Amino acid sequence: MTRQELIQQIKQKRSFLCVGLDTDPKKMPQCVFDLHDPIFEFNKAIIDATAPYCVAYKPNLAFYEAYGIKGMEAFVKTCEYIKENHPNHLIIADAKRGDIGNTSQMYARTFFEEYNIDALTVAPYMGEDSVTPFLQYEGKWVILLALTSNKGSHDFQLTEDAQGERLFEKVLKKSQEWGNTNNMMYVVGATQGKMFEDIRKLAPDHFLLVPGVGAQGGSLQEVCKYGMNKDCGLLVNSSRGIIYASNDDHFAEVAGNKARELQQEMDEELTKAGL
Amino acid sequence: MTRQELIQQIKQKRSFLCVGLDTDPKKMPQCVFDLHDPIFEFNKAIIDATAPYCVAYKPNLAFYEAYGIKGMEAFVKTCEYIKENHPNHLIIADAKRGDIGNTSQMYARTFFEEYNIDALTVAPYMGEDSVTPFLQYEGKWVILLALTSNKGSHDFQLTEDAQGERLFEKVLKKSQEWGNTNNMMYVVGATQGKMFEDIRKLAPDHFLLVPGVGAQGGSLQEVCKYGMNKDCGLLVNSSRGIIYASNDDHFAEVAGNKARELQQEMDEELTKAGL
Q1: Which HAMAP family would you find in this protein's record (chains A, B) (predicted)?
Q2: CA B212 to CA B239: how far, in whole Å?
Q3: Is B151 a catalytic residue?
């Protein structure tokens, strides 16, 4: 999916919501366990209920890998289901990969060829040759970790160099030598609040993938205030707050309602920004 | 596997070799393709030929994931084969995972429960809560990226803070608040040469996993000179230099010879160090 197609989807749907598919059998309602492939069936129901209100889905690989081969089968089926039934939705594999060049090439092949997903989260610690192999695919996206939503983000990401430049800022600057606004986004946690201003100084035009609204305590309004740009430039993710909003037979309907509530808030924010 | 058990294996075998199973069908000899599961059969032959000369195996997840479900089945079968037939070998999953706390918990479950491997490489960028979930398993190891073997390692890992401390040094120091010499090792690339002296100032007793000897150009002698400690403290990995040493029907025998050559060099280094 190109940048222009993504912007068009956001404007049509009045939403920049990404639904995080952190699918955990321990939190799924009892009713799906009667079906053949519970993880996939749960996702399918969530996807069909939320699709009108979001522009992206983000399966978190950890949750699928934790169930071994069966989990990975559910991941593959989920991606195929989205491609077939909701082809205008961006599929982001949240996998935080990154390794030496020849290994990153293999990961790129996995996600962009074998699974044919649209975007992949990548960790920057190993530098240029760990990231660039993912940038060789037309219409695919690298989403590089910049300033994450978790407490541990303070351990290294805020480290200042002798010139006062923080590590996440160095990642933002350096990585723009490798990719551009058409093939690279950044992960910035919703919990970082006003720090979005600093991010926008260095990456005014890039899309940002923003986890941490909801369960992790980030505020949508604050993210929009400091992070939105002239093309919106945001994909705000909610996982647990949507997919586990209810644990009974009506879980999908309730998830759809939660997604619609967020979509309505996003519509307001887009209007405020004149979009 | 405990630290004491690992040290004992090294002393018994006079080897601190880790064989990297970066298994790539494009580089495998023709003869294995007549068998039912070529990736697994290739690994099985390599493992049986090299087991007397090494103390660890390191399957690189990227190579298995690249072949989807079938690739992951081959990975699982490979780990099971090592556990059953060579139970004193450490199995390191080279996966470079790391995510927010609840997601890292899922990854830890995958590798340490579902696959029951002994050690996992982890990326430090997201800080404490991305690493500590992996440290909750008795007898299992986190191998944290410190100073990697690739060219891109210079992009961020060498960044100095205002006090002159480099990022990899901060990772070494900070992470010792989370783990200890019994559950944590560090990745340090063989290509880093004299930098091992700086690593040993901050982590004198930890084991180091050292990739980059062979195809990437690192020198075993230099690594030992600057990196070996009183317990050896090194696991030196070779992947391509061993497993693709020959591409004909005798590939396993040639791989075994290559592993034995390295073991003999390691024996000399251990003797030099009085071990």
Answers
A1: OMPdecase_type2 (MF_01215)
A2: 9
A3: no
Helix (H, G, I), strand (E, B) or coil at A11: helix
Give ∠ CA B133-B127-A17 in degrees, rounded to 5: 90
pLDDT (tens digit, 9 = 90+) per residue, A157-171?
999 999 999 999 999
B146: distance to nearest CA of chain A, Å?
Answer: 9
Domain covering A3-272: architecture: Alpha-Beta Barrel (3.20)
Average pLDDT over residues B161-188: 97
User: Which of B201, B194, B212 is closest to B176 using CA atoms?
Assistant: B201
Domain residue spans in chain B? 3-272
Segment 37-96 of chain B within 8 Å of chain A by CB: 60, 62-63, 65-69, 72-73, 76, 94, 96
Rounded to an integer, the average pLDDT of A266-275 is 97
Q: Are A188 and A141 in contact (CB under 8 A)?
A: no
User: Among B112, B69, B109, B101, which Cα is nearest to A26's?
Assistant: B109
pLDDT tens per residue across span B191-232? 988 899 999 999 999 999 999 887 778 899 999 999 999 999
pLDDT at A218: 87
